[in-house]
Write a structure and sequence with these properties.
This protein is α/β, with parallel strands linked by helices. It has helices at residues 12-23, 27-39, 55-66, 83-93, 105-117, 129-137, 153-164, 179-202, 218-229, 241-249, 257-260, 279-284, 303-309, 340-343, 350-370, 383-396, 406-412, and strands spanning 46-51, 70-75, 97-98, 122-125, 147-150, 172-174, 210-214, 233-237, 253-254, 266-269, 290-293, 310-317, 320-325, 330-334, 378-380. The protein is built from 17 helices and 15 strands.
Length: 419
């Protein structure tokens, strides 16, 4: 193949071994692969995905290809691309990939343009960069698109803003909001992988340290839970009163970030918003504080402010930049402020991505069949598809559950019977 841009084609064999390792942890995708390879409901459908190029994403592409789709991938984050996986996708599955680990911003958007040149009928996004680029630069191609999917909280926020402005021109299914996605992927996946990234990057003991989690959504809940499991003193900061109350009831200290920053050994953001760690927090952060982002884009920590406040920086470890401030304090930024779980580790465990990507596959199948009938808006994953993923996962785990009796179904559907 020549229609691709990858860094290390010689790593294809190693990448394929890792893809196969992840495949064994993804029984729902394997089940869908076998089923859709027989029926091929996506035959001839052109799909472009702007996703993290990881072993799990490779297996998503593998299933879509088996279902008959023509798949092209580009990276949704310059530091999350696994070059060996990109090589394996090109060499073993003949899937065009435009992604290089560490690519600069110009290359990143050139690769998105390559994915758009595929003239997709369905788009897959991690962060909505593909969709937003299509709408801004290629409005003439929107009429040919059946729909898209979005995998992240940040992307769904952006898409709902587009829809509110009347700018969204085709239907997008918010895979992120599926129960089998956010309850498991966001909570358990982010919880484990974000801590994995922090520990790999720093090798600093968490036990006994003050660990601040900024944002108590599903990702923040998972991070806080896992940090407490490591023995850290967890502090949660929030702007939502209900989530702040929930964090309090869950046993965490809750306070404003300006107070938490003074005592924090670690600050990890998980909000999907911009500059939640701002200049005022950096100005009071204690010496040696570790800063990491588990949201999607590298805007949650105010990096320009950090650069302006510093007199210089060093790189003591591969994923650590240590900024020295005028007063002698040192602030340690992980993974350039990008997704710490993917840039400093390997992302979510395959077992939780199994459910998220099963949702992606079923959402794509749904769009292929019904996309033309859906209005331009952000749509939920149909409840029956969410339940199907849960049923398949339980079956793969060998777990049986009870069923409602006919009497119980009648009772739940009626109002006449009382005490």
């Amino acid at each position: 193949m020549t229609d691709h841009d990858i860094a290390h084609p010689e790593q294809a064999a190693a990448g394929w071994r890792r893809i196969e390792w992840a495949w064994q942890e993804m029984p729902v995708l394997r089940d869908l692969h076998d089923e859709l390879a027989r029926t091929r409901p996506l035959t001839g459908l052109r799909i472009s995905g702007c996703l993290h190029i990881t072993t799990e994403t490779a297996n998503l592409a593998r299933v879509l290809q088996a279902a008959g789709a023509e798949v092209v991938l580009c990276a949704s984050n310059p530091l999350s691309t696994q070059d060996d996986v990109a090589a394996a996708l090109v060499e073993r599955l003949a899937i065009p990939v435009f992604a290089r680990h560490g690519e600069d911003t110009e290359t990143y958007y050139r690769h998105i343009e390559s994915a758009i040149a595929h003239e997709p009928q369905i788009t897959l996004d991690d962060g909505a960069d593909l969709i937003s680029t299509l709408h801004r630069r290629h409005p003439d191609r929107l009429a040919g698109i059946l729909g898209g999917t979005e995998e992240t909280t940040t992307g769904v926020i952006r898409l709902r803003a587009m829809a509110a402005d009347g700018a969204l021109r085709y239907p997008v299914i918010a895979v992120n909001d599926a129960m089998t996605k956010h309850l498991f992927d966001n909570r358990y996946g982010t919880g484990q992988s974000a801590l994995d990234g922090v520990i790999r990057a720093t090798n600093i003991l968490l036990a006994g340290r003050h660990f601040v989690v900024v944002g108590y959504g599903w990702c923040g809940r998972g991070i806080a839970l896992r940090a407490r499991g490591h023995g850290a003193h967890v502090i949660v900061t929030e702007v939502d009163p209900l989530r702040a109350l929930e964090a309090t009831m869950d046993g965490y200290r809750v306070m404003p970030l300006i107070e938490a920053a003074r005592i924090a050994d670690f600050i990890v953001t998980a909000t999907g918003d911009k500059h939640v760690v701002d200049a005022e927090h950096l100005a009071v952060a204690k010496d040696g504080c570790v800063l990491a982002n588990a949201g999607h884009f590298n805007v949650e920590i105010n990096l320009p402010a950090l650069e302006a406040m510093s007199t210089g920086k060093t790189r003591p470890r591969p994923s650590v930049e240590e900024y020295r401030l005028e007063d002698g304090r040192r602030l340690r930024l992980l993974a350039e402020g990008r997704l710490v779980n993917l840039a400093a580790a390997e992302g979510h465990p395959s077992a939780v991505m199994d459910m998220s990507f099963a949702n992606q596959v079923l959402a794509v199948r749904h769009l292929a069949a019904h996309g033309r009938a859906l209005p331009p808006a952000v749509h939920p994953v149909p409840a029956e598809l969410d339940a199907e993923v849960a049923r398949r996962k339980l079956a793969a785990l060998g777990i049986n559950i009870d069923q409602l009796t006919a009497e119980q179904r009648r009772y739940l559907a009626s109002w006449q019977e009382g005490t």
